[in-house]
Design brief:
With 166 residues, the protein is mostly helical. It has 4 helices and no strands.
């Protein structure tokens, strides 16, 4: 069972981190190839919402299987506490972005008629939207960085943990 728990948690984390990396390319391609910023923004928004849902599910899977490994004494490396903390912070940031930042950005976008780029640069809705966009980019970057660290930490095992295959 130990191997199954380890594999499932690594798959979940890899999906989440891989999705974050892929999202960077999706966003860049959307703004380069779609006919206008409004369409690109809608595509990126939809992709980010899907990514957040994936992240919330994968993060919970990672937490559950890490906790099971620790609780059953199948993986006793001290780094597991750091992993649990990092995964929890990643989940909190993702939930905050999904349920607070994105709805606020959407409200500002809609308040100017749907295309934020058509609002005057000094319009309060555009200023607030752009501020939240910068915050969102920083938060997603933080989640990606933590995810990469977590992938590295997940490989740490004690020598005697290798013998626990049941």
């Amino acid at each position: 069972m130990t191997i199954v728990f380890r594999v499932l948690r690594l798959i979940a984390l890899s999906l989440w981190v891989g999705g974050l990396v892929f999202f960077i390319f999706v966003a860049a391609v959307a703004f380069r190839t779609l006919p206008n910023a409004e369409l690109a923004g809608l595509m990126v928004r939809g992709s980010l919402i899907s990514l957040h849902h994936l992240g919330l599910v994968c993060g919970l899977v990672y937490l559950v299987f890490t906790l099971l490994l620790v609780a059953t004494q199948r993986d006793t490396h001290p780094v597991r506490g750091v992993e649990l903390l990092l995964a929890a912070v990643m989940l909190v940031i993702t939930a905050y972005s999904q349920y607070s930042i994105i709805p606020q950005m959407e409200a500002y976008r809609i308040s100017v008629g749907g295309d934020i780029t058509q609002a005057p640069p000094d319009a309060p809705a555009r200023v607030n939207f752009e501020h939240l966009h910068r915050v969102s980019v920083r938060l997603e970057s933080a989640v990606l960085l933590q995810g990469l660290v977590l992938l590295g930490l997940a490989s740490f095992q004690r020598r005697n943990d290798h013998n626990r295959f049941t």
